[in-house]
Amino acid sequence: MQKKLRDGISLAFTDSGESGSPLLLIHGWGCDHTTLQYQEEFFRRTCRVINVDLRGHGQSDSPAMTYEVGQFADDIAWLCRRLGIENVILVGHSMGGAVAIETAHLYPNLVQAVAMIDTVFQPASCLSELLAPLLPDLEGDDYENAYRSIMHNLSRATEREALTGLLHTLPAAPQHVLLAALQQHMVRHDFARAATACSMPIAYIAASGDFADIGELKRLIPHLLYGQTLGAGHFAPWLVPKQVNAMLSAFLQLAFTS
Hints:
By secondary structure, this protein is α/β, with parallel strands linked by helices.
């Protein structure tokens, strides 16, 4: 991976593919760039693809700080400037979708379009009830297994065996980052404010869970394009990449010609 130093913090990323329209991939909470590797491999045949490790995750530095969504967004914009990228299309999985929307809100002249994959937005109460008993364990010594239990619960029972290899490498963030980033993006980030302000093409690709109130999301973003994968849970980009890539390809075609 390549790295660039921002205010003493090393930010890691890959930069591959053709010199065409730039696509920047943003992973989710506690993950790293590898969770979107199938999207990187597919789209670098036709696009320039930047696949990042957010600060605190993967091979990027993880200092003690608040890990606010706005800070992640500032990093994305800063990295684009350093790489000479303009009119970028952002693809964010889970928390990465919130980062993408915030980046588009703060830097509308930079972002051409946004695609979110199973990003949390006003989820159904059943999701909160499912996760609530597991969250206190994140503060304990066995936080890594607590994280994996959460991710297992966000997945379909039929796919948990297939996820074993991926989850064995996660979390890709230390405990203080997991706790801070979860609090910031689930509780404190004003997703609705950011989404309402975005006029560029936006897509939402859902998995099988109730991670977002799509009706409310469409009210906030009337031009929202919506799709859903079949037979896959939260880690759809990893488990059913052909479905996800097909929907992203259709969206990119629309975004590039808008």
